[in-house]
Amino acid sequence: MHLQESGEMYLETIYILSQQSAAVRSIDVCEYMGFSKPSVSRAIGLLKSGGYVVVDAAGHLSLTEQGNAVAAKIYERHKVITDFLVKLGVDEAIASEDACKIEHDISNESFEAIRKFNSES
Question: Which domains does the chain have, with CATH numbers?
Answer without folding.
Answer: 5-69 (1.10.10.10), 74-120 (1.10.60.10)
